[in-house]
From TrEMBL, chain A:
This is F-box protein At2g32560 isoform X2. It comes from the Eukaryota. Residues 1-46 form the F-box domain. Pfam families: F-box-like. The gene is LOC108811285.
From TrEMBL, chain B:
The lineage of its organism: Eukaryota, Viridiplantae, Streptophyta, Embryophyta, Tracheophyta. Residues 110-149 form the SKP1 component dimerisation domain. Pathway: Protein modification; protein ubiquitination. InterPro entries: SKP1, SKP1-like_dim_sf, SKP1/BTB/POZ_sf, Skp1_comp_dimer. It comes from the Eukaryota. It comes from Raphanus sativus. One of its GO terms (biological process) is ubiquitin-dependent protein catabolic process. This is SKP1-like protein 8.
Length: 312, 159
């Protein structure tokens, strides 16, 4: 009995249970199976399962630009290393199908468009497509970036199951590159905004002592923002007793960065809630938009990254 | 007297199977027919489509009885029941496929899941050429595609 003699529903049920490597193998068996194995609904589950947490709106936008531009076409500068599952060969096959040659006629009803989910998945998997996301504690936990999250372009390395990150340049400095970035240090940008744009804070009046926040900060106005973790503190006039604390009613809000030692200029700053945009100077940098953290998982992530010793 | 449920198989080797309650409740089709009421007195005969022969229905009932019995060797028995790889012949795989189709008709969700998972597990890790050979599928790729397929080799497990 041929596997193709299975009723459609039965075959689909089996295909839905296959991992990406299995679907890839089945797609190479014959043309009929290829037509089934490249369909979006089979690959969407895999895309979401493996990549869902790190792909935000910016990544999907960049993917659409990537496939519509000519820069992804096969060229010596664009080749990547051999993928153990042969995904790089499938990418070539996909492009040959879409290039308008004889094969295209045969696959006219089932040709794999470059904007298919399978194409997206394989391009991520092979590292061919660099996608935007954010990296916690960039540059191998560099002390100058501890408890921050910065935008970067990421490329996956399937051999090590880690990423290479390219960070936006800081002024004239060379682009910083980091290898070996693990999955747990990545996130999709929680706010869809360029790292050079100021986030307009929308929850300032709700802030009260004990709240967890992230705030944009940059060394100078030519640099991109990073998001830095902090906690809302009490005003100096308050003794910290919650029963009669009125700090939340004050137009000034204290932000504490307790990863720094007491007395450090980085440990504490104050923001005026009224019309806050960006405040600062060339010495202490510029504090920008604030987002209040409500999700326990987000807060737990920062707690996990807490440095083992206080920073100077 | 409680309900008597008979599964009537026609065609090659016709046979009637009388089901007790613990087995009958596992058939979603039968459960729907009786709205879950298995205690009212009556006799019901359910005609099984001719494409599902009595051997396959018998195997499904055997599975249901084993499930109902909670015997200590149940796990071992099920492992053998679902193992698709009785080489060199394809009898066991054909049997699994037939059980999958019949259990889908009989609305037995758990058995459908178990059989499809077994068949999917069988396909995992196999190269396209191996799949073609085992499943007797004719490859109709072009020479260029064939060469690329052969060059890919056996896939390793990915992350």
């Amino acid at each position: 009995m041929s596997v193709l003699d299975l009723p459609d529903l039965a075959l689909d049920l089996i295909l839905e249970l296959l991992p990406p490597s299995g679907l890839s193998s089945m797609a190479k068996v014959c043309s009929s199976l290829r037509e089934r194995c490249v369909s979006d609904h089979l690959w969407e589950k895999h895309l979401i399962t493996k990549w869902g947490k790190v792909l935000g709106p910016a990544a999907h936008r960049d993917w659409r630009c990537y496939i519509s531009s000519s820069c992804h076409l096969d060229s010596p500068n664009n080749r990547i290393g051999h993928h153990p599952l042969g995904f790089d060969k499938i990418i070539s096959l996909i492009r040959s199908i879409s290039s308008g040659d004889e094969k295209r006629k045969r696959y006219a009803a089932s040709s794999l468009p470059l904007d298919s989910t399978m194409s997206f998945y394989l391009s991520l998997e092979t590292g061919r497509f660099w996608f935007p996301a954010q990296v916690y504690n960039r540059e191998n936990g560099h002390v100058g970036f501890m408890l921050s999250c910065y935008d970067a372009e990421l490329s996956y390395d399937t051999h090590t199951d880690t990423f290479q990150a390219r960070y936006a340049p800081h002024g004239r400095k060379a682009v910083a590159v980091e290898k070996g970035v693990t999955w747990e240090r990545l996130r999709a940008a929680p706010i869809d905004i360029s790292p050079h744009h100021l986030h307009v804070s929308d929850s300032l009046n709700e802030l009260k002592p004990g709240d967890h926040i992230e705030i944009q900060w940059r060394r100078n106005k030519a640099f991109p923002y990073g998001w830095w973790y902090g906690v809302v503190g009490h005003l100096e006039s308050c003794d910290g007793n919650l029963n009669h604390c009125h700090c939340h009613l004050n137009e000034m809000v204290v932000l504490e960065f307790n990863q720094y030692t007491v007395g450090s200029r980085w440990r504490r700053t104050m923001i005026n809630k009224r019309d806050h945009r960006e405040e600062g100077n060339e010495e202490e940098g510029f504090y920008g938009g604030i987002r209040k953290l409500s999700c326990k998982e987000e807060i737990a992530m920062w707690t996990r990254l807490w440095p083992s010793s206080i920073l100077e | 007297m409680s309900k008597i449920i008979v599964l009537k198989c026609v065609g090659h080797n016709p046979k009637d199977f009388e089901l007790d309650k613990v087995v009958a409740v596992q058939f979603g089709l039968i459960k729907d027919l009786f709205h879950g009421d298995f205690d009212a007195e009556s006799k019901i005969v359910v005609d099984v489509p001719v494409k599902f022969n009595s051997y396959i229905i018998g195997r499904i009932i055997e599975f249901c009885r084993n499930r109902a019995s909670w015997s200590s060797d149940r796990a071992y028995w099920e492992q053998d029941f679902f193992h698709p790889c009785r080489e060199p012949n394809q009898r066991k795989r054909k049997e699994l496929i037939a059980i999958m189709e019949a259990s889908e008709y009989l609305c037995m969700e758990s058995l459908v899941e178990l059989t499809t998972q077994s068949l999917a597990n069988y396909l995992k890790g196999k190269s396209p050429l191996t799949i073609r050979s085992l499943w007797k599928v004719e490859g109709d790729l072009t020479a260029e595609e064939e060469a690329k397929a052969l060059a890919m080799g056996v896939a390793k497990l990915g992350h």
